[in-house]
Amino acid sequence: MLILFNKPYGVICQFSSDGMHPTLKDYLAIPGIYPAGRLDTDSEGLLILTDDGKLQHKISHPRHKEAKTYWAQVEGTPTQEALGQLRKGVDLGYFVTQPAMAKIIHEPPGLWPRTPPIRFRKDIPTNWLEITIHEGKNRQVRRMTAKVGFPTLRLIRCRIGEWELDDLAPGQWREVMGQSINKPGKYPASGNIK
Predict the structure, then answer these.
(1) Residue 53: which domain range?
(2) Do the beta carbons of residue 158 and residue 71 sit within 8 Å?
(3) What is the pLDDT along the chain (194 residues), one digit of tens a residue?
């Protein structure tokens, strides 16, 4: 079984409760599945869950180098020099990132509002980047954009390998084989999915 889930902002990528934040169990009542990789609590977007241990390892282990694509809303207007640094690799102190694909994009179409919204500064514009990496170090994309001078305000993972977020709204999931969102009568969500 392979589940694609649009993780909302503020949700922790675990099923056990931490007492402060919503967790995956608030959205997915499917026994025996586990996340293939993680997504920070303050990041949004595509999370893959599966009951297949080998597939989970293949998706999440850096050795297999599954490409992960993110939309990053950054503070300021990135320069060609900053984009060049992202494409070349960024020295984050304890490691240098592998070269990334990075480009400025328009705000992704159909993007949902974030709750709470990002901070807004009247005199500082924001721009969107599309960044693809093959690693997955802790808070890597945020650290990369900050290091080149353009801190990330909002981060959404839109693709992992061949799987895309597509039209899933925050809190919705889709079983890849069935291609339908939140199948009625099968694996109902226990949380607030509409």
Answers:
(1) 1-62+165-194
(2) yes
(3) 999 999 999 999 999 988 889 999 999 999 999 999 889 999 999 999 999 888 888 887 767 678 999 999 999 999 999 999 999 999 999 899 999 999 999 999 999 999 888 888 888 899 999 999 998 788 999 999 999 999 999 999 999 999 999 999 999 999 987 433 444 334 444 333 33
> Is the distance from CB of 27 to CB of 93 less than 8 angstroms?
no
Looking at the fold, whether 92 and 135 belong to one and the same domain comes out as yes
CATH number at residue 172: 3.30.70.580
167: DSSP letter: T
* Cα–Cα distance for residue pair 170/49, rounded to 1 Å: 15
DSSP 183: -
The pTM (predicted TM-score) of the whole model is: 0.89
Same domain, 182 and 111: no
Residues annotated catalytic, as ranges: 40
